[in-house]
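Hi R.,

Quick one: here's the Acetylornithine aminotransferase sequence you asked about.
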Amino acid sequence: MTMEHKVERKLFDEVMVPCYSPMQIIPVKGQGSRIWDQADREYIDFAGGIAVSCLGHCHPVMVNALKSQAEKLWHLSNVMTNEPALRLAKKLTEHSFAEKVFFANSGAEANEAALKLARRYAVDKFGPEKSEIIAFNQGFHGRTFFTVTVGGQAAYSDGFGPKPQAISHIPYNDLSALAEIMSDRTCAIMMEPLQGEGGIISPTSEFVQGVRELCDKHNALLIFDEVQTGNGRTGNFYAYQGLGVTPDILSTAKSLGGGFPIGAMLTTTALAEHMKVGTHGSTYGGNPLACAVAEAVVDEVSKPEVLAGVKEREQWFRDALEQINAKYPIFAEVRGKGLLLGAALNEEWQGRARDVLLAAVEEGLMVLVAGTNVVRFTPSLVIDKADVDEGMARLERAIAKLYNK
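And here's the predicted structure, written out as tokens:
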């Protein structure tokens, strides 16, 4: 009997394109908000695969949906439709402003579809000169060439040759800068209703209302990138519902599949009409396996007790972080909403978010960063109190070590 060959971290350096620099540990299994590595060491998961694992790991509703669909039908091309895709699309329209859905595999693809729809609509309705897309500094919308150019972080889009044109960037939460730049050439504004990668920055109510009004004034479409904020993450099913502003187009992914890759662009019937047969497509978009899992996730996350529980858990996190900070004052403030939270480092600790992340892993806790100055938390929406308490005890030990060095 041959021993199974152990997969080691050094294999990454041999066979993987070096655009990532993963940790030395390799997780092999997960249950709820805990995961285990190859050495059977246990970690508490406050990262959720970057806001993806909204029901934790191996949640029974997801496992059952996957197993059940796996024995029926895995794939069809979009020459045909399928039941899971239709059921999921119907549910997404019931939980949002949208009347029409386009399925993709990721947030970047959902955003690509959103941007193409906005441009196509403007060309059809107003002519080719109405093409300008306005987005925000530090915004993040994906890694395709179009979405990364719309994203407001030049480091991600520079160095690949000529970029897509007619894209402008201004500071987030700066309404006067937006009013100044907008014109009848503006085709769309793309924004996150809470900036994620940019440091967990919430919009002011005046800003988000003003953006909507300026879009209406200039016949521009408002696109909300809800890839990170969607599917219950902020305590509303979609973040726009807590802001009192409705976009024209919304992108969703990450937690939509709870860990199974799927994305969707949501919009109105009037706008969707501009995506005629042949204008856009996706081989795997609307895949029955992905849609079956996502349907189970949407059914679970949309339960009123789950959404209410997000706000309750936000308070657990805020209280615990405040207690840690009273002993080891490294944070200036805790930002964000629901379970998309960022603890911003104070002046003495600038640039050390990754140090906190690495110290936390040493103690058996997974957290994230959002830039160099913010420690980010995007745990399961149903994480239990015991896991939060234990995770925070580990975080405190990690911070204590850094603080007392």
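The longest helix spans residues 304-327.

Cheers,
M.
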